[in-house]
Design brief:
Layout (H helix, E strand, L loop, with lengths): L1 E3 L2 H10 L15 E5 L4 E3 L7 E7 L2 E6 L5 E7 L3 E3 L1 H6 L6 E4 L3 E7 H7 L4 H20 L9 H13 L10 E3 L3 H8 L3 H13 L3 E4 L2 E4 L2 H8 L6
Antiparallel strand pairs: 1-2, 2-9, 3-8, 4-7, 4-9, 5-6, 5-8, 10-12, 11-12
Helix pairs in contact: 5-8, 6-7
């Protein structure tokens, strides 16, 4: 992670996403721009939460880990998205792990500064309320049903999400087979069943398994299979 000392770029993202009115003048000097490379962890489940982040460029992956060490993917998010909002309001440790899928830019601000300067600032409070209620709305409508989708649908959605950024530009057209155990855990299935599904996708001409990688051959076919893309 790098904190970028570039106020011009910070102001560009504030304006581009119409965030200027969300933050009052008192908090502006305490806003900072952060850059995370692909694969970097932004937040780790269980760690103290100190920053609230606003995703302004790139794509992130959010997943949770059980006490037994099993992981389950919750969603992929693109701008704008707020990270650490529930932790800020509830004053709790980080709920889920957040990882950069692509190169990511976030506007960050420390909780202590937010409480000092925005606790009575209605535009910020309304913004946080809208973000949190939208998250609960989306979870109510999709999260509880995600595991009811067939594994082939979940895998197609996962492949699309990890290989394309928020503008559907290609990040990586292939997935290493060495990570298939992690992939199986993330989408909530067994390694054996995942391999059966991959063989079927290969037979359907959607992907190809070669030289230790799964290559996407038919993006549009995967999109059709994924439907509404349950992870986004």
């Amino acid at each position: 992670m790098k904190e970028l000392k570039d106020r011009e770029m910070l102001e560009y993202y504030l304006k581009a996403h119409q965030l200027e009115s969300v933050f009052n003048e008192e908090i502006m000097p305490y806003l900072s721009l952060h850059h995370f490379e692909q694969g970097e962890l932004i937040l780790s489940q269980g760690e103290p939460s100190k920053y609230l982040y606003v995703l302004v460029k790139g794509k992130i992956k959010i997943y949770t880990t059980s006490a037994e060490g099993k992981t389950l993917i919750l969603s992929f998010k693109s701008p704008i998205e707020v990270i650490g909002d529930i932790e800020y309001v509830q004053e709790i440790d980080t709920i889920n792990t957040v990882e950069a899928v692509s190169s990511v830019y976030l506007i960050g601000v420390q909780h202590t500064m937010l409480r000092k300067f925005t606790n009575d600032y209605s535009p910020f409070l309304k913004f946080i309320l809208n973000i949190i209620t939208e998250k609960f709305y989306l979870k109510t409508n999709s999260m509880s049903f995600s595991l009811l989708y067939p594994v082939e649908v979940r895998l197609a959605s996962y492949l699309l999400s990890v290989t394309h950024d928020e503008n559907e530009s290609i990040l990586n057209s292939q997935l290493s087979t060495t990570s298939l155990t992690d992939t199986a855990n993330l989408i909530g299935t067994s390694y054996r069943h995942l391999n059966r599904v991959i063989r079927q996708l290969c037979s359907d001409g959607l992907v190809e398994r070669s030289n230790g990688f799964i290559l996407i051959k038919d993006k549009e076919g995967l999109k059709t299979l994924a439907g509404g893309n349950i992870y986004e």
